Amino acid sequence: MARGELAPPPLRNDCFALPPGVSWTPVDAALERLQERLAPVVSFEELPLFRAAGRVLARDVMALRPNPPEANSAVDGYGFAADLGGASGEVTLPLLAGRAAAGAPFRHVVPEGYALRVLTGAALPEGVDTVVLDEDTASDGATVAFRGPVKPRSNTRRAGEDVARGASILTAGRRLTPADLALAAATGHGTLPVFRQLRVGVLSTGDELTEPGAAVAPGQIADANRPMLLSILHRWGYEAVDLGRAPDDRNALAALFDRAADRVDALLTSGGASAGDEDHVSALLTQAGSQATWRIALKPGRPLALGVWSGMPVFGLPGNPVAAFTCALVFARPALALLGGAGWTAPDGMTVPAGFEKRKKAGRREFLRARLREGRAEVFHSEGSGRVSGLSWAEGFVELDEEAREIQPGDPVRYIPFSAFDL
Ligand SMILES: Nc1nc2c(c(=O)[nH]1)N[C@H]1C(S)=C(S)[C@@H](COP(=O)(O)OP(=O)(O)OC[C@H]3O[C@@H](n4cnc5c(N)ncnc54)[C@H](O)[C@@H]3O)O[C@H]1N2
Ligand code: MOO
């Protein structure tokens, strides 16, 4: 789909359906499917620079003017024509009355044989292409003396030496950084074309959940996923919409989905993603004819329910917080980026020696909560999918691929810091 269309076409209802007969989906196949089937769903708008930080650029942007726009002085000093400073030994030049300063250009020609007081950032007047640094001169106000030779064009900046007019400065899909705003401003832009912020809802499901901090009756636990997922979305630059908690009741959940579809572009749920009696997210999406309960060959995060509800993509994350976190980073992150116009990206990892020992089943990928210490990846002491403390302990993942069976200390492993997932 072309980027930036005002009304992007709705996603197909069956865009996540698995081919018949498929049961275990390898992580890469699931990612490929998402990448193939999703496209930007947001229109774009022209935003003032001051409000564009963190937004996704909707079109390529060119420099409207060169940077710097004119040749200017890099220092406070005295300017003259290059050949005057060429001689070695002492040079004395008569000073012209007046000066050139940033924002207050000298509007006359500096005649051959004269020097002029110039300040940092001042446009070079005609007749000046070289500046000698204040600290290297002596002046009585009528003349200036310095020791030559001074290299031609010293202490000056050429017009356009940083960016030429018409040069490509920023490409569509980029999430605008503070430095990008400086570059855009310096090259003549007051506004930038950006995608509307993707609105992403977060809904926790399960009768057992209570609000964080609220009293818990027997059988209840605090909703840990919602604050985590909302803050992840916020960090990713989306408008995160808190849709609260849903009971294990199919009709109530369907009504919440309907309401969400009117308010958000995509929905993250957690819980109810597998195929048990109370797994209503996956059941509802299947009922809508649009769903695939994906059994991903992944630990943690095996059940992942993906579907489209009234045009709204739903990422049914597993309920266990570690699995919800992992699936959010591995699957929702690149998918939401695509929906929001930023394009698909894979996180950059690095190969480091293992600081641990482990046996694993072949045929599935594993993400271990990990951190780097003294150049080695250490992993959390438990792989339990409800162990939230390990998520907080970790600074990244060790990603073990499908083939890995046994890891010994010192073996090379792939470490992906959470920063590579934009956290
Ligand atoms: N018979 C099977 N049982 C389970 C399987 C399976 O393949 N066959 N898979 C297991 C795996 S792996 C996971 S992960 C979980 C995920 O299942 P659901 O997405 O259906 O999640 P729930 O059953 O609703 O909840 C799982 C667990 O997480 C707790 N939870 C849920 N939401 C939250 C929340 N917002 N904050 C904190 N904790 C939450 C919930 O109370 C459960 O303890 O299924 C396994 N079972
Ligand atoms: O997806 Mo589950 O976390 O592997 O427990």
Question: Could you describe the 3D structure shown?
Answer:
The protein is an alpha/beta fold. It folds into four domains: 27-41 and 197-339, MoaB/Mog-like domain (Molybdenum Cofactor Biosythetic Enzyme, Chain A, 3-Layer(aba) Sandwich), CATH 3.40.980.10; 44-65 and 173-195, Alpha-Beta Complex (Molybdopterin biosynthesis moea protein, domain 2), CATH 3.90.105.10; 72-157, Molybdopterin biosynthesis moeA protein, domain 3 (Beta Complex), CATH 2.170.190.11; 350-421, MoeA, C-terminal, domain IV (Beta-clip), CATH 2.40.340.10. Helix content is 18%, strand content 31%. It has seven helices and 29 strands. The strands form eight sheets. Strands 1-19-21-22-18-14-17 form a seven-stranded mixed beta sheet, sandwiched between helices. The protein has a six-stranded mixed beta sheet with strand order 8-5-7-6-10-9, with no helix packed on it. Strands 20, 23, 25, 26, 27 and 29 form a six-stranded mixed beta sheet that branches. Strand 9 (137-139) and strand 10 (143-148) form a beta hairpin. The longest helix is centred in the C-terminal third of the chain and has 19 residues, at 321-339. The two termini are 29 Å apart. The structure holds ligand LQZAQKY5 and molybdate ion. Residues 299-302, 318, 320, 322-323, 385 line the site of molybdate ion (MOO). Belongs to the MoeA family.
